[in-house]
Amino acid sequence: MKNSNYLERIRFAIEIVNLKEHSPDWMNPGDPNWDQILDPCISIGIDSLSDNITDELLDRYILLPGPNTLIFDYTVYNIGEHQLKIKIHDIENDNWLLPPIQINKLRIQSIPVLPNGIYYPADSNEELFGARLLGQRGEWKFTFITPVKESGGLKLGLWS
Length: 160
Description:
Blueprint: E1 8-18, E2 41-46, E3 60-62, E4 66-76, E5 80-89, E6 101-108, E7 111-113, E8 117-121, E9 128-131, E10 133-134, E11 138-146, E12 149-151, E13 154-156
Antiparallel strand pairs: 1-4, 1-6, 2-3, 2-5, 5-11, 6-7, 6-10, 8-9, 8-11, 12-13
């Protein structure tokens, strides 16, 4: 059980682009299957995400075409390494009509951070380091260390 003594409260802002309309090599609005393309469904969490989409109904987001900025807070209770995770869900089994998404910007405590995470595509043993373009279902992880370092009343920022 988490107690009321927390280390710090962290605000995240992440810009994720649904590339449905920005991918000329994939499909365009004139294609006969255009109406069947699904907007990607994702979940965002810190340190853990359930594999069952029904467990995350309150925390899932449908990404509309173009840029989507998601802002959320997280309370840190323990010292050390944490992971920001984004899971791309498969809403319909074997639906290939899911556009790629791109992670454009990540801000932690209003500080811009290069969002170089590790992407784990679904049904694969691959680990794609530094990936920001996510082309299929799977999970993306960005590791950061907290808390801020304190020394004689001086606080030094978040490390990633």
